[in-house]
Amino acid sequence: MDFRSNDRNQQVFFGYSLSDFVPANSFPAFVVQFVFELNIDPIIESYSPDGSKAYDPRIMLSIWFLAFSRGITSTRRIEYECKNNLEFIYTSANLKPDHTTLYRFRALADKLMPELFAVVVKNIVQKTNFKFDSIAIDGTKMRSRSSWRKSHTEKDIEAMLAKVREEIAGYLTEVDKDEQKFEKLKKKETSLEEAKKKIVKRKQTIEKDHKETHKINLVEEDAYTMRFPSGRDAFPGYNAMVSTCTTTQLIVAVEVTQRRSDHGEFSRQHKHIEKVLGSDKSRRYIVDSGFYTKDEASYALENGVNLYFPEIWHYGGSENEIGKKQMYYDKMRDLYVCPEGKELRPKRHVGYFVEYVTRGCNNCPIREKCTSSRDEGIYFKKVLRHKREEEFEELVLRGKTVEGKKMIDLRQRTVEPVIGNLKSNLGFNRFSRFGLKKVNADFAFMCIGHNLRKLYQMALRGEITFPGGFFDRFFLLFSKILRENRLSRKITKKLSIRQPIFGL
After folding, report:
1. What is the pLDDT of residue 178?
2. Are 359 and 378 in contact, with CB atoms under 8 Å apart?
3. Hey, which of 37, 108, 243, 501 would disulfide with 253, CB 3.0 to 4.6 Å?
4. How buried is residue 401: exposed, middle or buried, by Cβ count under 10 Å (0-12/13-18/19+)?
5. What are the angstrom distances between the C-alpha of 189 and each of 151, 160, 167, 396?
6. How confident is the model over 7-40, as pLDDT tens digits?
7. What is the pLDDT of residue 390?
8. Model pTM?
9. What share of the chain is helix, strand, coil (3-state, %, to 5)?
10. Rounded to an integer, what distance in angstroms lies between the CA atom of residue 427 and that of residue 381?
């Protein structure tokens, strides 16, 4: 397909080209060459052959990659940079796309961003010798564009509905009626009724502990109310998952979810990574304790994943309460023995769990720290043991070994600085667009920008080859030298001609 494009090496009438103003080993040149080596056939095929020429998608993609690597997300800001910043002028081939054109291309890229991110990672794997033998995974809460003032619980919405209906009833009794006011009230009533239906429907999918306190944002429904570590206040936002190579700090998988916790996220990230990087049973995965659930542990064991958890402090109870962690399990007799010597014997099976119970805990000296459960005035202690509990314990205790402690320390020094770079250095601590799909695309753009900056630094250090290979770099450098020498000869010749006239 014929696109609107330009040649950055094309000399203008005055004898210079765009490449003269941007060094061949600069970051914009790196981004341009990297994009031109990508396979973006899905984006090209999405264009229609009808109408006027569209901007070359490789040029548009290069502009967006450069913008996100600089922490810029506004289309109007990018339009300004393409007219005034030499780096963006070079990247855009001096085409100067306006903010509408930039927005339309980003909307097109939104639909293909998961595949595009995978293409970028696969290109990195093919062009480098990195093994990606250990992956650290972590999640971070990021605020949405919507305001917390627009988030309400079901009770709040019911109160607002009652107030609006009261206003409507009072309006109907008025003699002089304002039709515009009436339509506005009816429209507000309709929107509140729809919000109430949505929050009732959503309650069926969220955690039991959050059903009554859960809020829905009237502006951005996809944003869930989350509590951020930096403060006690809760804001509408998302949970962004990042999977990073511990050797290179390159991001290999990303996803933005609506779940408040990291439970269930490891298996999703693992499937993405295996799909992009290829299956490797020796690859090590490191997560923090927030990822641990019985289902995730079962997934790791069933698929032979080399997974490392830190010590799970809540596994079987905390230090201040008596739980499985403080009890001894007798495998031969299949029972638990509490610190006071009482035996908890198996009583019944509950799905994949076995229930162990002991009664007669009324006079136990540690009862207050052990149990508050009672039946007909008799206190009892109950614990649940999974059928694969022994394997789970082995998986959890793996993080306490010498190798496990090294891996846990490695996770803190790799994936957490990557998240810090995205949120603090580049300023991506809040999304600028509405909706889960657009947020996912923007976060993928952010992570691609991070990867390009990392690759560029590696190329400068000589750890990887500059995109385009040695011949292309030599040709660019050689042609630049020729142009400089040719321009120098022209200037010298002109000065020698003008010297007798002006007395120079």
Report:
1. 66
2. yes
3. 243
4. exposed
5. 17, 9, 10, 52
6. 777 766 666 778 878 888 889 999 999 999 898 8
7. 75
8. 0.76
9. 50, 15, 35
10. 51
